[in-house]
């Protein structure tokens, strides 16, 4: 009955509803309030009345919000901003101090979840910008946190929240906060490098979390577990959301249905049990962010798995309350989305980033059928677009008999210009039109995702329900290459409307 009553209780704002441009405006207003450019450095400040750089993990949380904006738009200026923010952050928070004889990154910090947020911002930044300066610290930071934090003496595994040598005399524990954030990092490093040791660690951490921290009958993510096996059954929206995102990443990487079921149940628990009349709200002063990780988890899970019909109206309800309760002078909204944002200049910037994140994952109109994970099947041959098991830049993209392998699974996400990115789930490379030639017959390849025009595709539904897929840079359409054999390389050609240029999304 709880799920049935939530939506009856929600009172939508009468005068304001989510519309085009609101996500851009929310991000712009957050930047106007908190972004500082000083002496070549670019950072988010601590609060409206505190111009100091938002430090360490709190700085990472703000940068994650900027990354959400780039994920939605693919905007080159936002990509540049992310590069500058992370460069400044690394300058202020170097993995190793100059006089530190210990080579372990951020060894001065005993909190493994801190390293989780550090490395999460860095690995996402690497995926978005291609800057190798972010990949190295992301990998070494994860490696160190896992090496020092994973413990089998107590609870059969798991990563300490604060490592015991730092926690003393307090009793250390193992929490969702450290395990799930670092699990996400391992997944993203795997996507970026295809180094299976990171995938194995991601699966190892997840299996422990599933056994020790998840109530599988309800979907609740418990806060943690103590050395004697006693569970801390407190809940937090950010823990719930991080787990959903973690499960969804492993679902995309492996295709294993269990991850879908876990994410779905955790999302339902969050919606039903961690909201006030369906709306996320937290005005506690000691809380930094609250629902930012839930925005990512729910946003990715709903998008990737085509669940908009089930969750869109609820997501919009939260977005509408965010917009209704903004500060009228600054346009920023705090963590308590169902209450007016106070004019308190001492509130830290982290308290406003969850609203930014939520709007990045809630479109102004319900998305159609194109987005999410699909197999793309040629109408003429009945064969699927396939990465052929290749993982290197420049590898040819082919068609192959439909087999539902990861080689044939593609994640379609949209840019602000309405074009689409098409990412292969086996190689984590993008479908790419190579070079500058716009000639017919140019063969399509895999390439590291960069969201440049040659990786942007217009996908237009035809009268028969099939789709025309055309490259934004060349203007030519994706063509089956006039072959019907396994391994036939896909090419671009001028649009003729023939079946070899029509694709069915499955």
Distance between the termini: 34 Å
**Major sheet characteristics:** 3 strands, antiparallel
* Total of DSSP H or I helical runs spanning 4+ residues: 14
Overall helicity: 40-55%
**What is the beta-strand fraction?**
15-25%
Instruction: Please list the strands of the largest sheet in the order they lie side by side.
Output: 1-2-3
Computed CA radius of gyration, to the nearest angstrom: 23 Å
Shape: globular
* Residue runs with pLDDT of under 50 for 5 or more positions: 1-15
Overall average pLDDT: 95
Q: Please state the structural category.
A: alpha+beta
Number of strands: 22
Q: Would you spell out the secondary-structure blueprint of this structure?
A:
Blueprint: H1 2-9, H2 22-34, E1 35-38, E2 41-47, E3 50-53, H3 56-73, H4 76-92, H5 112-129, H6 132-149, H7 164-167, E4 173-175, H8 176-193, H9 196-212, E5 214-215, E6 220-221, E7 224-226, E8 231-232, H10 237-254, H11 257-273, H12 292-304, H13 308-324, H14 353-360, E9 372-374, E10 376-378, E11 383-386, E12 398-401, E13 410-414, E14 420-424, E15 430-432, E16 445-447, E17 457-461, E18 467-471, E19 477-479, E20 488-489, E21 491-493, E22 503-505
Antiparallel strand pairs: 1-2, 2-3, 4-7, 5-6, 7-8, 9-13, 10-22, 11-12, 12-20, 13-14, 15-16, 17-18, 19-21
Helix pairs in contact: 2-14, 3-4, 3-5, 3-14, 4-5, 5-6, 5-8, 6-8, 8-9, 8-10, 10-11, 10-12, 11-12, 12-14
